[in-house]
Amino acid sequence: MNILKKLIANMDINAIAVNVEAKNWVEAVKIAGEILYNLGRVSQEYIEGMIKTTKRLGPYAVIAPGVALPHARPENGALELGMSIVVLRTPIDFDSPNDPVKVVIAFSAPTKSEHLELLKEIGKLLSTTVLQKKLKHAKTPNDVISAFKEAIVNYEVINNADY
Amino acid sequence: MNMSLNLKEILREEMQKKTVLINPSVLNESYLPEYLLFRDEEITQITKHLGRFLSGLHPGHLLIHGPPGTGKTHVIKLVAKNYNEFTRENGINSKMIYINCKDKTYYQTVVALLHELDVNFPNRGFGVAEAVDTLTKHLKMENERYIFVFDEIDKLKKTYKDKEDPMNALIYRMSRLDELLDKDAPLLIMISNMSNIVEKIEHATMAKFTPKPIYFREYNTDELYQILLDRADHALDPSSFSKESIRYLAELIQKNERDLRWGFRVLVEAALMAKEKITKELIEEAVKIVDNDILIQVVKSLSNHQLVVLWSISFLEASSILPVTGELYQVYKLICGELGWRPRSMRHVMHYITPKMENIGLITSREKGMGRGRGKTLVFHIEENPHKILKIVEEILSERTHGKFKPNEIPELLQISFQRRR
Asked: Which end of chain A is more exposed for a tag (fewer CB within 10 A), N or C?
């Protein structure tokens, strides 16, 4: 959990938006991408890449019930490691068995290895229903950060436990 | 090349390695024994039929069918050997010619027959009409009475030019040779291991062909045991095996619905591993090796797109996602995109690629309702362990794409593997 742990520890409060209204999945992805762009983590091209990858992934863009994970390849304009989290007011459909989506987590990584590693770490963390639930019910950016911090600690306790 | 390797020494060592196999050729697929156990009835029936042909009668054609590994080819080769020896010894103008049709087109089969008849005919450049015409002319001139054996007729290869089924075309043409010859046509023996071969022959073809069917039933466990024991007696060091281990192998053939060819391969593999004795454990070990070899061989025979589809089904199963039509196509399309290939249409994948793999026995499919008013979908299932298939396909695809296929480095696939569903 090295990359994710570092990202969460240094998380800018402006990278999280709660109670956001979006008309459709494209707009939701754009909002998450714009946050990364405004923080200087990605270029405009990356946002287009995120929409294309979401289309390519089809039903798999929604990684867990209610949680979508849009991202593009590093070569599509990822400038720095970054993550943005958008909690929607009204859930929207991504045309996936895991619809409707309430939480959109976008991320960027400048290298291929960091991209794969970060994706793996987020994927592992989101496999627990506790984090999924906490994110969906987050009212403030701090709720989101503490949900992640708690999930990382729990994950490390379970995986480092000496049985 | 690694110069530290002494290849000639390796060859010598392997060649001179002491094994319990004293006569390995006896267990080869091509080995033709002098006798066949438990097939006396069929051998006698066929030989009597041919004896009548020798007497001047035309007793009609034969259609030999039965499951694989039941001795059809061996019986006919044994009969052919004796028939040709008999006619030669007695100065009779008659000959039996054997042609295996597997992977041959209709044209190539007729050309192979012409070559067996010592007729000079080019392998390519002409059409079936010319080949049949040459055959007819040759038969008209010849006084010899022929028996043509066409083995594995259902395995004839169809070309894009073929308007009709090559098997039916071949049988139709061969059985109507008499109309072109104005004399007795050759006696035909067609062999197939399709259980419904009679249904596959069209009415128009059957009207003239009207063969006498001879069915080769499967061997029972005791017969399998006797045959294996007989071959083991000839092929192996007598002190290297027990009757119990041979019986165990016969039981495995029956239990796993395999045939004698598989049994011989297992026996060879076990014999190569045995230091002194072929034990039950060694047989089990050999089964794993042979089955794995067969699996790799089958997977290697698939086309690139078939391999990607197979990989996609295995990947979804390994990721605990139900491989239904839409989800399978999504993964398939993703990989094609990564490899820079134009994906086949969904219709092509579902109507041509998956049914082919189902026929081979690599996958199965079943219909599943998607809920009220939402129609039905197909759910696919890998018959083998999906992780094993993933590994095999990855190796083959990586080789074919010169290392371009690296699924572990595709983020979209990684994301799919982390899918959690309700």
From this structure: C
Residue B380 bridge partners (DSSP): B365
Q: Which residues, at least 6 apart from A34, have a Cβ–Cβ distance to it below 8 Å?
A: A47
> Is residue B1 very low, low, confident or very high in pLDDT (cuts 50, 70, 90)?
low
Model confidence pLDDT, tens digit, residues B48-78: 999 999 999 999 999 999 999 999 999 999 9
What is the three-class DSSP state of B210? coil
Q: Which of B305, B307, B303, B318 is nearest to B384 (CA)?
A: B318
pTM above 0.90, yes or no: no
User: What is the mean pLDDT of the segment spanning B302-326?
Assistant: 94
Q: Which residues pair with A75 in a beta bridge?
A: none
Q: Which residue has the tokens 């073929």?
A: B162
Please give the angle made by the CA atoms of B399, B403 and B406, to the nearest 5 degrees: 115
List of long-range contacts for B38-45, beta carbons under 8 Å, 24+ apart? B38/B219, B38/B223, B38/B226, B38/B227, B39/B71, B39/B75, B39/B216, B42/B71, B42/B75, B42/B214, B42/B216, B43/B75, B43/B78, B43/B79, B45/B214
Neighbours of B71 (CB within 10 A): 22
Percent of chain A with pLDDT over 70: 98
Whether omega before A97 lies within 30 degrees of 0, making that bond cis, reads: no
Closest-CA residue in chain B for A109?
B411
Given this model, what pLDDT does residue A15 score?
A: 95
Catalytic residue among A22, A25, A36, A71: A71
All structural domains of chain B, each given as residue ranges with its CATH number in brackets, are 40-215 (3.40.50.300), 221-298 (1.10.8.60), 302-417 (1.10.10.10)
In eight-state DSSP terms, residue B236 is B
Q: What is the pLDDT of residues B332-357, one digit of tens each?
A: 999 999 999 999 999 999 988 998 88
Q: Does B422 have pLDDT greater than 90?
A: no
Concerning whether A71 is annotated as a catalytic residue, the answer is yes
∠ CA B216-B220-B224 to the nearest 5 degrees? 95
Confidence of residue A151 (pLDDT cuts 50, 70, 90): very high
- Bridge partner residues of B63 (DSSP): B190, B213
Which residue in the set A53, A59, A71 is minimally distant from B327, CB to CB? A59
The average pLDDT across B245-273 equals 95
Q: Which domains does chain A have, with CATH numbers?
A: 2-155 (3.40.930.10)
**B368 interaction partners in chain A (CB closer than 8 Å):** none
Choosing among B330, B415, B417, which should be mutated to test the A contact, i.e. which has the most A CBs within 10 A? B415
